[in-house]
Amino acid sequence: MTRRLPVAPPRQYSTWLLGAALLALVVASFASLPLQWSAFLSPDAATVTMEFLAGFAPPETAPAFLRKTALAALETLSMSAIGTLLAVGGGLALSMSAAGRFGRIQRAVARALLNVLRSIPELVWASLLLVAAGLGPFAGTLALAAHTSGVLGRLFADALENTDPHPERSLLANGASPGAAFCYATLPQTLPQMLSYTLYRWENNIRAAAVLGVVGAGGLGQMLKFHLSLFQMQSAATVIIAMLLLVALVDAASFALRRALTR
């Protein structure tokens, strides 16, 4: 005999209201923006775009320029790696309080600080830190660390809050210290997830570090801004290719590390 499926639960009015609000927001967004689709899809726009792209070919392949591009790529990679490592330390320090392990007041203060850190984009952080640290990769590294600390701190705190508390309580009940109970019961449960979050943010910081150079934070982004401002399109094409290769290599390495660490 065929079994009938159970009756679907009734939809709450709040669900319908939320869906209607989202639909109204999408419609209002399209209505308020002056989207000129006809001009964008016109033959003139296509011709101008093709002429602009043709100026990037062929890329600059002079050995001296390739060596300079490679050094800038290493600078961008270093910025992202150091910024991510600093963010891991800051995120871990704030995540303990943000997870509510030291009381409600500390939780509210830590989460408010994390909201401030991650709500300010990396470009804004870099613009502010350039005043204090000066031009160069140091300001870009600090900007990545500040923004990523807010992101990782929130993700780490959520991971700690969602962890099963029973193993840690069992160790505490058997006389273990709070630090030992956390390190041997809670941290091993969240460590694979934290590593995955860290590697993912490192991938994002590679892209962000390349963009931060536009405001003078060094690396490939600064080279790209320089050559585009002088309309040296062939040199800019080489820098863009270096960015794509760097991101692809880091994505592949990050994927391999995640597979190895989360097995």
From TrEMBL:
The keyword Transport applies. It is found in: Cell membrane. Residues 73-251 form the ABC transmembrane type-1 domain. This is Phosphonate ABC transporter, permease protein PhnE. SUPFAM superfamilies: MetI-like. It comes from Massilia rubra. It comes from the Bacteria. Keywords: Cell membrane, Membrane, Transmembrane, Transmembrane helix, Transport. Its main location: membrane. It is a multi-pass membrane protein. The lineage of its organism: Bacteria, Pseudomonadati, Pseudomonadota, Betaproteobacteria, Burkholderiales. InterPro entries: MetI-like, MetI-like_sf, PhnE/PtxC. Belongs to the binding-protein-dependent transport system permease family. The chain crosses the membrane at residues 81-102, 123-146, 236-257. The gene is phnE.
